[in-house]
Amino acid sequence: MRLLIEMGIVFICTFMFAITYNIKKQKSFLASFASVIGWLVKHFSNIEFKNEYLSVFLAALTISLVGEFLAIKKHAPATVFIIPGIIPLVPGSNMYYSMLAVINDNLDVATYQGLKAIFYAVAISCGIIVSLSITRLIKNGFWIKKSN
Amino acid sequence: MDKIKLKRILNLAVKTSELLLSSGAETYRVEDTVRIMCKSYDIDYVDTFVTPTGIFISLEKGSEVVTIVRRVKKCVIDLHMIESLNNFARAFNKSITLNQAENMLNSVERTAHYPIYIQLLSGGISSSFFTLLFKGSLYDMLPAFIIGFLLKFYLMKSTKMNLSFFLVNFIGAFFVTILSLLFQNLSVNISYNSIIIACIMQLVPGFGITNSIRDTISGDILSGVSRANEAVFIALAIALGVGVGLVGFI
Description:
The structure holds 2 protein chains of 2 kinds. By secondary structure, chain A is mostly helical.
């Protein structure tokens, strides 16, 4: 039940973000769809591997791959789907708690949360890098050469 | 082909790339677009160098060479504009005359945005629902909606003012923090943590991170590094804004 509610929230948030970035309705809907898939991947891989960074990486990878796929299908730049899609993964809360801890002079928590924020960002980046590399490989005719 | 026609093509290309860059496109997309547009007009040699803040385009046809340098300052994220310009450049072929192309570009430039109230409401609604994602209660939704609404209004106004991006994010985060603390004083049910986090999600540099990575992987190392640098400074500005607000008013 909790997961279903979270999926709904993620969907609404991404949809609204897509509208603030001036994406038209149909594509906003698809971007939110990509984001919900990413959230599901994050949830289940967190249960499976019990590692937050890996699950964020897998979620970002999924969102970017779905985004690239939709980009080819809908003849739109992939960023239209990826940028709103990864917004729920961005570690805004860790950044905030790190700052809060700095103010309370609680440097242990500050370092912990700050590093967490950095590693989440790195995980998201790696997800996008891997998916982009895969799509480049396919677009440059890697599969065609192999089948010949 | 005479020099005047070459210059018109160059102007068309530079206008397209300027619009793309100022709506937040990746630099490799801008370069590809220019190349596709110019190649469809049988230009012998096209070379472009685009950074997040400037455009250099050089065209060569026969003995004529024209070059243009354009500085791009403002950047307002508009993904629909990128999409329509992308399609505009890829629909290019020799049968489209220069006049038609200029008209098409003008009509793309004027494509409708969402009405202002929808943009403001979407900012508010996204903030109010983000509170639930960050362990907030239902009581936090209304304050977050109001603050997100005001923040979106401020962000829309700030693009017209000549503020640096650091100051925009600093002031935004600062006011979010102060307003959240004010709302907490109104009711014991409201916790300011989740409200602040939900509202600063509108400021966090998710866009910058994505674009910087896509640029770096595409080989535009310079753009990648500068965009990543910008993202780091935006994060610092937000942290500073939140920090100053919390220290001053907690």
